[in-house]
């Protein structure tokens, strides 16, 4: 996967812009590692978007330039970075035109069947769900942490944050979770979790967890509510191109509301009814979102397209009847939206 950034390079500037390739690393961890390798402050490293930890991704990192920034930086098998130039400022997170994807598929049936299925998606409207990885890859429970925070259920928050090992986590992580991060060798890997394990009680946890982590957990809950809204919308028979009362129409495309944290619902009509149902389906009320427990970050409401369309969809045959599929999606969209349509079982919403 490769980013398509909105970024202007300049002959002079206090920030260095690197083209960063990573594999098996979270985007933030890769940017901080790059900063340490070039001698820049790790906390100042900026990336335009968060990418799948497991994927091989190509993205842009912006960070304060040291005196003599290296042109090439490598960590074999994990990270490769090339200095592109300088900038007077770093772009805000999310300032992207979109992302380009290259995915190799191996058909279960014939190559021809897969090619025909791909052809049918060339101009298809794909439901703009947040992808599975939005909620975590090895540990897809970020939205559950946000839900526990908003409910004020500190015991559930502690359980999801510290314990509850997931099968895709490493043996070391599962061992640390079983010991609530008190076992030897656990304190160095996830410092805030280790500190939280020693807190006086569950109510202290959110004071020990960094604010940006709390924001990530609550943002995942926002995304999960949107997914519930979109599923309800589809199950009720509304087409993706239909604007419901209370939704917005931008560029000829309906946009659905994503509720804020610390804000009242700002829409009405059928959209509000669907949104209230989506919120209620996870045991919350609009009032819970409007008045979160004290000390939690406030997150603004926003609007998200109901659907997206892949651009430049093409496939090339590889040996063994495999296909290299290439396409672009606008920012905030996931490659799994297209893959989901290819593999969707009958009756799936």
TrEMBL record:
SUPFAM superfamilies documented for this protein: Pseudouridine synthase
Keyword field: Isomerase
Name under which the protein is recorded: TRUD domain-containing protein
InterPro entries: PsdUridine_synth_cat_dom_sf (IPR020103), PsdUridine_synth_TruD (IPR001656), PsdUridine_synth_TruD_insert (IPR011760), TruD_catalytic (IPR042214)
One BP term from GO: pseudouridine synthesis
Pfam families: TruD
GO molecular-function term, one example from the UniProt record: RNA binding
Limits of the TRUD domain: 125-309
Similarity section: Belongs to the pseudouridine synthase TruD family.
């Amino acid at each position: 996967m490769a980013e398509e950034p909105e970024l202007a390079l300049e002959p002079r500037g206090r920030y260095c812009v690197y083209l960063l390739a990573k594999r098996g690393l979270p985007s933030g961890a890769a940017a901080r590692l790059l900063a340490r390798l070039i001698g820049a402050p790790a906390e100042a490293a900026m990336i335009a978007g968060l990418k799948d930890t497991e994927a091989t991704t190509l993205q842009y990192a912006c960070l304060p330039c040291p005196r003599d920034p290296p042109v090439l930086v490598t960590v074999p098998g994990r990270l490769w970075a090339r200095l592109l130039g300088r900038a007077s400022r770093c772009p805000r997170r999310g300032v992207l035109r979109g992302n380009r994807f290259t995915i190799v598929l191996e058909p279960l049936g014939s190559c021809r069947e897969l090619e025909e299925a791909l052809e049918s998606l060339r101009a298809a409207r794909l439901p703009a769900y947040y992808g599975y990885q939005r909620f975590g890859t090895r540990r897809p429970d970020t939205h559950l942490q946000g839900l526990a925070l908003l409910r004020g259920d500190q015991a559930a928050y502690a359980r999801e944050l510290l314990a509850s090992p997931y099968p895709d986590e490493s043996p070391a992580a599962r061992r640390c979770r079983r010991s609530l991060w008190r076992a030897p060798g656990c304190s160095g890997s996830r410092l805030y979790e280790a500190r939280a394990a020693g807190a006086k009680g569950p109510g202290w946890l959110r004071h020990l967890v960094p604010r940006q982590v709390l924001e990530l957990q609550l943002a995942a809950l926002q995304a999960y509510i949107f997914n519930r809204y979109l599923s309800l919308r589809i199950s009720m028979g509304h087409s993706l191109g239909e604007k419901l009362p209370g939704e917005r129409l931008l560029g000829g495309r309906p946009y659905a509301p994503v509720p804020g944290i610390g804000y009242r619902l700002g829409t009405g009509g059928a959209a509000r009814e669907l949104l209230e149902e989506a919120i209620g389906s996870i045991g919350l009320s609009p009032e819970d979102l409007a008045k979160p427990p004290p000390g939690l970050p406030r997150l603004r409401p926003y609007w998200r397209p109901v659907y997206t369309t892949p651009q430049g969809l093409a496939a090339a045959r590889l040996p063994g009847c495999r296909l290299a599929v290439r396409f672009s999606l606008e920012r905030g969209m996931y490659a799994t939206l297209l893959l989901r349509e290819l593999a969707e079982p009958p009756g799936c919403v």
